Amino acid sequence: MADDAGLPREFAALAGQIGELHERALVQFAPIVLHILRSRSRDAGRIERTLDHLLDFCGHAAVLQLYRRLCRHYHGIDPDAALGYVTAYRTMYGREGEPGSDGGW
Fold first, then answer.
1. pTM across the whole model
2. Inside any domain, residue 1
3. Where in the sequence is the domain holding 22, given as residue range(s)?
């Protein structure tokens, strides 16, 4: 069977589950990122672990904004490592360009 958009119901259900997962990731990681930013943490291990986890959910616009904010913060601590995370995002999600060229980094 298909839904109104012509997608099989299983795909529509899966898309809904992915959306819910992205929302849960946002709820879970937003306080962590905000704490890192507000405390001006320089704990590279914690920042990198958080970026590693966020990267999987950057298909969600609000999670991507957290990722970008944390990358900008990390740039002040370790510019090369931060650029590596920007590159990882662009590789995974197919974005081109240099950091800063799109105004988001």
1. 0.77
2. no
3. 9-93
